[in-house]
Model the fold of this input.
Amino acid sequence: MSVSETIAAKLKSEFAPTHLEVIDESEDHRGHGGWREGGETHFRVVIKAPVFTDQSRVARQRAVYKALADELAGPVHALALEVEGA
Done:
């Protein structure tokens, strides 16, 4: 399973989103820190889920970071988040 597929699977399982995009932006960071041949190092996640509705922006982001802790400790160098309640 690719890193992007793993991220999507974990977020679907944890948050049951109504909208989810996992975008590999690694190629945009070629030559920058953390970049590796083959990509899957820099991601943008756009997620919308009812569970986030009454949470602050910081709480939403912390919840996503917690769900993806293994990926952030390993293959993912950078993660940009757009998290909304649905």
